[in-house]
Structure formats: C-alpha cells, structure tokens
Task: structure prediction
Amino acid sequence: MSRVSRQSGILFVLSGPSGAGKGTVCQALMKQMPQLCLSISMTTRAPRLGEKDGVNYFFRTKEEFKSMMEHGELLEWANVYDNYYGTPRKFVESKLQEGIDVLLEIDIQGAMQVKKHYPSGVFLFLIPPSATELQARILGRGTETDESFKQRFGAARYELAMMNQYDYVVVNDVVDAASERIQAIVTAEHCNVSRNLYLLTEW
Amino acid sequence: MSRVSRQSGILFVLSGPSGAGKGTVCQALMKQMPQLCLSISMTTRAPRLGEKDGVNYFFRTKEEFKSMMEHGELLEWANVYDNYYGTPRKFVESKLQEGIDVLLEIDIQGAMQVKKHYPSGVFLFLIPPSATELQARILGRGTETDESFKQRFGAARYELAMMNQYDYVVVNDVVDAASERIQAIVTAEHCNVSRNLYLLTEW
Result:
C-alpha cells in the first residue's frame, strides 16, 4: 500500500459572502481537479426533469429528511421555501475514508453548521478582490433597485466579518487564479504534519 | 497600495533528516520561485576564492560574531571546526518587511533554534520517500563502511521523530514534485486567514 493511500481524504468547505463567485470558482476547480468529489446535497423537493437521485441530489421525503436531522446524519441543513436541503454525513465520510477529498460549496450559515459537526474540515473563505469590485458585481446583475443594492452590499460587508472563522482566505480576482490557490491549499493540507504522523510508525 | 503588498513576507525553514535531499530540493525551488530570497548565512571562516561578502556569506570576525550572538542578532548559530556559522536576524527581517518571502535551508538542530527565536516561521520537514530509499541514498554515496552506514541510518531514523515539531512534511520522492509541493505550501500560507485579517479593516 502506498503512503498516499494511508491518508484519509479531507473535507474542503468553500464558502464566502454573497457575490464572491463561489459557484464559478467551484466549477473551475472541479475541471482542474477531477479527483475531487463534489458533495451531493439531500433535498425534499421533487426532482426536476432529467435530475437523478444520487447524482444531482439525494431525493428524500420530509419524514426521511427529518429523521436524518434528528439522528445527526446531516452535516448541515436549511429550510428554503418549505423544502429542506442538507448535506448527508454518510456520503461525505465514506468518500473521505476511501482517501478521496470532498468539496462542499455552501453559504456561510451552512459552513458554520458544518464546522460545528465536522471541525476537522478545512474551511475556505472566498472573497471578491475589493469592495469596489463587489459593488460592480452586484450592480452588474442589473436586477437591483437602490434599496436592494444597499441591502445586498451591507449584507456582504457584514458577512465578510465572518472571515476569522475560516482557515483560509482566497481572493477571487481571476477565477482560474482563485482556483489555483485552492489547489495549492489542497496540496498543502495533505502535507500538514498532523496528517502525516502515521509515517513515524512506518520507519 | 495593492493588497498583496500589505502582507509581510513569510520565513520558510526547509529542514529534515540527513539524506532527505534538502540542498537539491532547495536549488530546484529557487529556480521555480525566483521571487523567494535565500537566506544568507554569516560565518567567521575566511572567504574562499571568488566568494563575496553579502552574496555567498556575510564574513565577520569572531569578535563581531560573538557580539551578535550575545545581542540576540542571530536566529541560530553553530560552531563547526572552530568556525562559527549563523543566520542574521536583521537580513531576514528586513526582507520580510519588504514583503519578500525568505527561504532558509538548515539542519534540524538549527531549525529548532530558529523556531525558538522566530516562531512565526513556517517549518517544513523534508523526508525521503521510504526507509528503503534512504538506505539506497546513503549507500549510493559509496563512502560508507558498515559501521558508518548503521550510524547514519540510525541517526536519520532518530531525526525522523522530530517531524512533529514541524508544520509540514514534504516527501522527496521526485525533486521537482517535492519542490512543487513546497510552492503550494507557500501559496497556501499566504492564504492563511491569520495573514489576511487586515482585509477586514479595508472594506
């Protein structure tokens, strides 16, 4: 058995304020690192045309979902428009045990729940390069009134203060550059001494 | 002023057991990352032909060296065959303040001294890929008797146990791969949240 296979996988949680570009960076990263496994969410909403259970989502009834909540089988969950969404612990942990790294892209509230239930995850905070750039990104959507812009921008500034709950800050100036920084973090974390102490017993 | 220039440089200390290949990896890394500044040692030995003060070494008298030792101006020092060698704190710190990362390649004893005097450094432990490979490397030098081989191999095993004093373990299986892992660690460390909290005051 090679050394690499002795290390279990690592859960990387990609989060950050609204407008940081989590989805875009996540897509770029999955192209650059196909060996990463993207976490699959569980939901109580009905499958849409073409969606498959265990691929797009794990589709479950509300009763099943609530039972999993009560039994601590979700790393995080939220209720959105009367449907539940969550991250099943078992799927993530089985991948990690196989030595596969898992990537979870999630908002800040979800990330804080994951941190509580799975503190050995690595928490990455993606941010826009500047306040000016964030303004431009929010306005660029072209859907904001003055009031809603102020709300979104204010919320993003508030969310930014959550930075100190994370392990790493990744500035999303250029998507591919941000993705490469995350790749570097994945490599570095596998070199972290706490993940390599088993080597001491091998010599 | 750009954000990057607001972060100070980081001191990376590359160390590890005898036979790990520190020098070779260090050379490869300096080629891949010319923006890294290699720490220049101070010594009391006489300059050899072509060696220049402030380039190969800082050449100093024993009196000057001892005065610096006594005034805490060295991050580490050692006496080898009646000459002193050490790492001047001022050179390292001035580079870090300019925002330049500094690389220091040093044996384990020296690294432990640096850790004591400069705990905010990042400490990398380079190791051979396996005990078998270490044996091969030691024997490959062709200069070892049975006895000296046993001594060297035993010392390396003993040194390996120092791993848990370090931040990262880098397996030197292939020199360029090891160097790339170190590059990733450099990138990741700059993303470490503790080095980016100043961003909170900028928004």
User: Anything to note?
Assistant: Residues 40-99 of chain A form a domain with the Guanylate Kinase phosphate binding domain fold (CATH 3.30.63.10).
